[in-house]
Amino acid sequence: MSFKNNLNSDLIVTYEPINLPSGVDSIIKLKLNYWKGSNFHLCINRNYNKLSNIPFSKYNLNLFQLKYPTYSELRSNKNKYYSIFFSQLYFILNFLSLLKYYKKNKFNRVFIHSGGWPVIGNCFLNLLISILFNKKIALIIHNYPNYDKENNIFYKIQKKLIPILNIKLITVSKNCALELNSFFKDKKNFLVIPNSVKDPKIGYPKNKNKIFTLIYVGELSKRKGLEVLFKSLNLLKIRIKIIIIGSGEPKYESYIKKKYKILNHEINFISFSDQVPKFIYSSDILILPSISHESFGLVLIEAMSCKTPIIASQTGGITNLLRNNKDALTFKNDNYQELLNKIEVLMYNDALKKRLVDNAYRKYKHLYSDTVMVNKYINFDDFS
Prior knowledge:
Blueprint: E1 3-4, E2 9-14, H1 23-34, E3 35-36, E4 39-44, E5 61-65, H2 71-74, H3 80-104, E6 109-114, H4 121-132, E7 136-141, H5 153-161, E8 167-171, H6 174-180, E9 190-192, E10 213-217, H7 226-235, E11 241-245, H8 250-260, E12 266-270, H9 276-281, E13 285-288, H10 298-305, E14 310-313, H11 318-321, E15 329-331, H12 336-348, H13 350-368, H14 370-378
Parallel strand pairs: 1-3, 2-4, 2-6, 4-5, 6-7, 7-8, 8-9, 10-11, 10-13, 11-12, 13-14, 14-15
């Protein structure tokens, strides 16, 4: 299925300073896949390393990539003054080159996909230039605000500018919108468009695994609750298989891998896979034990579409997405004993598993399928 767009040219902006799992890229690819009839432009940062994931030949897509790194991409340098000086210089150079690109191309709308708040990198650059050119701007915020950056210059500028400008604010969950509304006072100007995934259309029913298999997919970081999962698995007496797909900051990734090696279970770490739906489909349970900053949880939608039972923590946007004992089992945030109990329940209750996955799949088709999400963006023309 494809959708027609009667506008001539749209700019999509994304920013990924490091190579970590992200739902932003998959959402952009879905938009490009279904959004026909428009001349698209994609603006990315210099260190963006996921271009191989975007089939340019398939889309009517023009690429603009910043020539110079942004501050977030420079800050790994040990010399703080080097980072500050060159980030300011590169900001000016990137600004001027992007300014020329805007003058050359007449964009109808600018969709800025930011991984969080405040907006940084080339997302911030495009925000400023879009304002200068009086463009129709949709700012899509995919995660919670970073309260550690309240004294940040980006934070201060945006807190003053955005409430008084004609910028349409979009986020991925009601919970995330409530958090962000503490900064953006105009609640009428906030639209929630949940993320989605393409239906993998894998044949059903599933084959029974020889060994019970749990899967986690996502960033390897403390906020994702991998230590909570470890504590639960350390108490689980029956030996099972655990698949962990994802990567993270090298120091933490090394730490968590060493920690999991002592478990009396079969552990498989996979840094990256383009076959994630197949892994989820072939697993008995998907677990998302996040403890903070989980605005949506795209992997939960993937599990719904694959008819794989879900166990997830009661935090952030997960609480908007799942209903305990109806389409998933949920546990109190950071409660490893309750997580263990939920795992044991699903290991032995096939009737419950079937009821959960059937309800979850119906919810996915009705609310979170790719066509539902893209249609909301395409029909979104209210920038007033």
